[in-house]
Write a structure and sequence with these properties.
Helices cover 40% and strands 23% of the residues of chain A. By secondary structure, chain A is of the alpha/beta class. In chain A, helix 4 links the parallel strand 4 and strand 5. Chain B is of the alpha+beta class. In chain B, helix 10 runs parallel beside helix 14, helix 14 crosses helix 15 and helix 15 crosses helix 17. Classes of the chains: A alpha/beta, B alpha+beta. At the A-B interface, helix 3 and helix 4 of A face strand 4 of B.
Chain lengths: 378, 722
């Protein structure tokens, strides 16, 4: 009896002192290639900051045992094939239960196919392609889809601002760029606007030149530019050199612009940006800058939010298998991230506020400035 | 079990069965192991051959497709030249040529390829595809496009990024008319259905499947099953993925134990596994083992029956000897065992019969000897009974003697006590008597003369009388005899200087009257002629001193009487009463003071302790005996420390002396009755025995600790709860 008691208390005390078990989580980022500057390191730093912040929170507990999230980083090199390869590698060989990241639509869409067929929840960060979550039960976004943003942008431009004609310039090989142009065009036409046409180019095509003159040929009031940040700044400055005062519009891609390097006028619609003058975001900025010596971008913030969204799901349920976590994520309602509140309400695309931003000069300094806001669709 | 131990035949058969079973088990185990090894080696050999053949077929198939595809390329490049007039765009010409070629070869090519498509050099745009949904998609970022632009490129098996189905693709550049620059990439996804038919033949010795480098099944019956959403894992798969080739017995990805071989196919990024479940592989070996086991059991059964009958024949003469032995054991010495054979058992029967005959003759002689011995024993018994009675009487006498000795010991202690008390009372009475005699003499003889002198004293003499009286009654004391001598010398010097006759006698008188230290002060008031005044005052002071002595002696006698009263007042009714242990001890110390004050110091370390239920007179006897022993041990010189304290529900009395201690060799015998170290006649040896019995009567215990030369300590533990 005494021996049994000693063993029992020994086991209980050992158990109390057990180190936290790991929940393997795969993180796929674009860590190499031209887009790594926007999607790669800033995203990784966002995840690392979240991981560090989680150390100060109570441990995740299941069946009386503490757990912690273990992140496995992989590089998709912005290649769809590589995205599929890394996703399969993380699932089959690292045994991850959840995938995070996939910041680019170009790789996020094929990765989402892997996640869906293997029934592994994926929380994508900045990717916003409509087919990312469409018809899928295991794929979730931090960002909103292109369709809602395009709709709001077109509504503001044709309605409040009274523009009638529009054209687009986009990278035909880039799925985000292509899908954005199609979505904006459809919304523009739906709202009664005149579509003057779209001009395509191929990013990095050594034989081709981006046909800026061609897009201005029909004198559109508005030029829609859904280009990646690698091309966008050159296109804006090139178009404004050809036609000063030309109205240029876009989506999240404009959020990557450095205001001092470009000229207006332009407008863009994005998920509410975490601007440092917002008190609730300021503390995140300070911690990020203290840790990495640079300011976060949208990818960093969405990475940070994706980590804590997963943590929210892990605290909501004790059913930590893939199906249980997917169910918990679908039922997330008003998760308060740095980017603002997130609600899924049974769908993988979040219900978020959208903001129309413009470039303004305040006190002699150019800055991105919110002009109007649309409440969530739902 | 008892039947087994009693039956020789049963044990004979059981031991035979045990040995036979052991032999069969060893034979089956060895043959099973050996046959398994042989089967395993044969299976590995067979699997190796088939797997190598499959790998070779796979390579051949892919190379064949590659060669086919390259020939198509040449045909298409030739065909596109025929469309020069229709289009100046080389990519468009290629697309047109492909459409034409495919229309011609559609049926054949559909059986060979899942999809054939052409990617234009600019942006990887798919301008032609057998899958209409793929047309106008852009594949600039695909490896197939970037590598296919350079040269013929064959992928490993990979999941297509749009369908995730396992795919193996071939891509090659299509050149324009000038042959200088590729206009695009012609690519095809091979139809892996053929691969399935290649891998899975009806007469294959085991199951074959392919796994890609990320643990996904790319062929086999379980390829699209939801059970393996996290890939397939086994020892063989993991080894092959790490680039190793080998074979072994392991659990396959479904948890089934298999005999399998694994091969890594470099260039295709595929692991090829061929497996046979061990139950199937080792079935013949197991059957063989079973047959050996069965035949062994049948042999044992037959042999057991045979042994049964043989043992009956062997054991029968032994049983006859046993039956004869049973009769002998019952007292029948006339029985004889039959001699049924001339072997060892027959010899046994003969020897047994001889033994019975000798036993009979011995038995008849033995009866006489038993009768003689019985008579002798009867006489011895009577003597022993007589001796026992005598011993019983002696024991009773001893008990009576012991009781008398105990009483004697008690009386001796009482005698010591009474002698002490008498001595104590006698001393003050002597002092009173002496002082009273002195007073009577003073009052009778000196008082009339002093009265006469006092009546005729001058005023100066009266003043001197008063001063001397005050000084004599003062509390001054010289302190020591040396100081007193110094004072006498001082007074003698002063008196000599003042011209007093007989200054030494006067100086001694000054010392007695306590004025020696004030000689200069008294010289103006006195003169040698005042001798009578000095004598009167000295006489008065002597009388007063005598009266003080009487008072002190009377107080001492009263204290002794009080102690004696207290000692005698203890209840001797035999009932336990609360006892104040320190008071009880103090009484004994008082009564022993005459002995103690002659060179023995008593140190009391009494703590406030609760009353102890007990018998006060008996306890007084305990302290008396222990203190008496201590005084004896110290030869009435030294120190006794008596400590009283409370600890753990006991009042503990420790009596420590500074005698020579108790030698270790007798330490455990000192509480034995009649044990004594005193010379004959001085002690009965019952003192500590009485102590032990009294303490045990109080449910307590007494212990002793002693180091030779350092005294001894007796500890008496008296429980607070009786």
């Amino acid at each position: 009896m005494v021996l049994a008691a000693v063993l029992f208390f020994g086991l209980v005390s050992c158990r109390a002192e057990l180190p936290p078990a790991e929940i393997p989580v795969g993180v796929i980022l674009t860590l190499s290639g031209p887009m790594s500057e926007w999607f790669g390191e800033p995203s990784r730093q966002g995840f690392l900051l979240a991981e560090k912040a989680a150390e100060n929170l109570p441990a995740l507990i299941k069946d009386g045992r503490p757990y912690k999230i273990k992140l496995y980083f992989e590089d998709d090199k912005l290649l769809p094939e590589e995205g599929v390869f890394t996703a399969r590698k993380l699932i089959n060989q690292k045994g991850v239960q959840v995938l995070l990241g996939a910041p680019s639509s170009a790789t996020a869409v094929p990765i989402s196919l892997v996640a869906e067929t293997r029934r592994v929840p994926l929380i994508a960060t900045t990717a916003s392609h409509p087919s990312l979550t469409f018809g899928k039960g295991y794929v979730f976004q931090i960002n909103t889809t292109l369709k809602g943003k395009s709709s709001y942008l077109a509504t503001e431009l044709t309605g409040r601002k009274g523009f009638k004609t529009a054209a687009a310039l986009y990278d035909v090989t880039n799925s985000f760029s292509r899908a954005s142009a199609v979505a904006f065009k459809n919304e523009w036409l739906r709202l009664g606007g005149t579509w003057l046409g779209e001009v395509t180019y191929i990013q990095g095509d050594p034989a081709g030149k981006v046909p800026l003159e061609q897009v201005l040929a029909g004198s559109p009031q508005v030029v829609f530019l859904p280009s990646y940040p690698t091309d966008l700044e050159g296109q804006i400055n090139g178009l404004h050199r050809l036609k000063p005062g030309q109205v240029l519009v876009g989506l999240d891609n404009f959020a990557s612009l450095e205001p001092s390097n470009v000229e207006g006028p332009f407008w863009f619609v994005s998920t509410k940006l975490p601007l440092p003058d917002q008190p609730d975001v300021n503390q995140f900025y300070r911690r990020y800058e203290d840790a990495f010596g640079s300011s976060p971008n949208m990818a960093s913030v969405m990475a940070y939010d994706a980590y804590f969204l997963l943590r929210e799901a892990l605290t909501k349920t004790q059913d930590w298998d893939s199906a249980g976590l997917a169910t918990a994520l679908r039922s997330v309602n008003h998760f308060e991230g740095v980017m603002g509140p997130v609600s899924y309400n049974g769908n993988g695309s979040p219900d978020r506020e959208l903001v129309l931003y413009t470039l303004k000069t305040v006190n002699g300094r150019k800055q991105i400035h919110p002009e109007s806001m649309r409440e969530s669709d739902r | 079990m008892s039947r087994f131990n009693k039956s020789l035949r049963l044990r004979l058969i059981a031991h035979f069965l045990l040995i036979a079973m052991l032999g069969i088990t060893v034979a089956v185990t060895v043959s099973s192991f050996r046959s398994s090894s042989l089967f395993q080696a044969a299976i590995f050999e067979q699997l190796r051959g088939v797997a190598d053949q499959k790998a070779q077929q796979l390579r051949g198939w892919v190379n064949e497709k590659k060669a086919d595809f390259e020939s198509y390329k040449q045909l298409i490049e030739l065909l596109q030249l025929s469309f020069v007039d229709h289009s100046t765009n080389e990519a468009d010409r290629t697309t047109t040529a492909l459409r034409t070629f495919f229309r011609q070869q559609q049926e054949f090519m559909s059986s060979q390829f899942n999809e054939i498509f052409f990617m234009e050099r600019r942006g990887g745009r798919v301008s032609f595809s057998t899958n209409p949904a793929a047309i106008d998609t852009w594949r600039a970022n695909s490896t197939l496009f970037s590598e296919g632009l350079k040269d013929t490129y064959i992928t490993g098996v990979y999941p297509a990024s749009n369908t995730l189905n396992p795919t193996l693709s071939i891509a090659l550049p299509i050149f324009g008319a000038d042959k200088a620059k590729a206009v695009g990439v012609l690519a095809a996804d091979l139809n892996l259905i053929y691969l399935e038919s290649l891998l899975h033949k009806k007469d294959d010795p085991g199951s074959v499947y392919l796994v890609d480098s990320l643990n996904s099944l790319v062929s086999g019956p379980n390829m699209n099953k939801d059970r393996f959403l996290r890939g397939v894992h086994s020892f063989g798969i993991d080894e092959a993925i790490h680039g190793n080739n080998g074979e072994g017995v392991f659990l396959n990805y479904e948890g089934v134990e298999v005999v399998g071989i694994y091969r890594w196919l470099p260039g295709y990024d595929l692991a090829l596994l061929m497996e046979i479940p061990t139950a199937q592989a080792f079935g013949p070996a197991l059957r063989l083992s079973f047959e050996i086991l069965l035949s062994g059991f049948v042999t044992i059964l037959l042999a057991s029956i045979l042994i049964y009958f043989i043992s009956q024949r062997i054991i029968r003469p032994i049983l006859k000897v046993k039956e004869a032995a049973v009769q002998v054991a019952k007292g029948d010495l006339t029985v004889m065992a039959p001699i049924l054979s001339s072997d060892e058992v027959g010899e046994l029967a003969r020897t047994f019969n001889q033994m019975i005959r000798e036993l009979g003759s011995l038995y008849s002689g033995l009866e006489n000897r038993v009768e003689v011995r019985t008579r002798e024993l009867s006489r011895s018994n009577e003597a022993l009974e007589k001796r026992a009675r005598e011993l019983k009487d002696t024991l009773e006498n001893l008990k009576r003697t012991q009781h008398m000795l105990v009483q004697s010991e008690k009386l001796a202690a009482l005698g010591q006590l009474v002698a002490g008390v008498a001595h104590e009372i006698n001393n003050p009475l002597g002092a009173i008597n002496s002082s009273a005699g002195l007073l009577i003499q003073t009052l009778k003889t000196d008082m009339p003369r002093w009265m006469e002198v006092l009546r005729t004293m001058t005023p100066g003499q009266v003043q001197l009388f008063q001063l001397l009286t005050e000084a004599g009654n003062s509390s001054f004391s010289a302190g020591s005899s040396k100081a007193e001598r110094e004072l006498r010398f001082h007074a003698e010097d002063k008196l000599t200087a003042a011209g007093w006759p007989h200054p030494r006698q006067w100086a001694e008188r000054f010392v007695a009257l306590k004025i020696a230290h004030r000689t200069e002060e008294f010289l103006p008031y006195s003169a040698p002629s005042d001798l009578v005044i000095f004598e009167i005052v000295q006489g008065f002071l002597n009388a007063i001193s005598g009266m003080y002595n009487i008072q002190t002696a009377a107080e001492r006698a009263a204290k002794i009487v009080y102690a004696l009263k207290t000692y005698g007042r203890y209840d001797s009714s035999g009932k336990s009463v609360p006892v104040d242990i320190p008071g009880n001890i103090e009484t004994v110390i008082t009564l022993y003071e005459n002995l103690l004050k002659q060179g023995v110091e008593v140190e009391r370390r009494f703590q406030a302790v609760p009353m102890v239920p007990g018998y006060p007179d008996d306890l007084s006897q305990v302290w008396t005996n222990l203190i008496h022993n201590a005084l004896h041990a110290m030869k009435n010189k030294g120190k006794i420390i008596i400590e009283v304290r409370e600890d753990s529900g006991f009042v503990i009395v420790s009596i420590t002396d500074t005698g020579n201690g108790i030698p270790p060799e007798i330490l455990d015998r000192i509480f034995d009755p009649f044990f004594t170290t005193k010379p004959p006649g001085e002690g009965s040896g019952l003192g500590l025995d009485i102590v032990r019995k009294i303490v045990e009567k109080h449910n307590g215990r007494v212990t002793v600790a002693s180091n030779p030369g350092e005294g001894a300590t007796f500890n008496v533990f008296l429980p607070l709860k009786g």
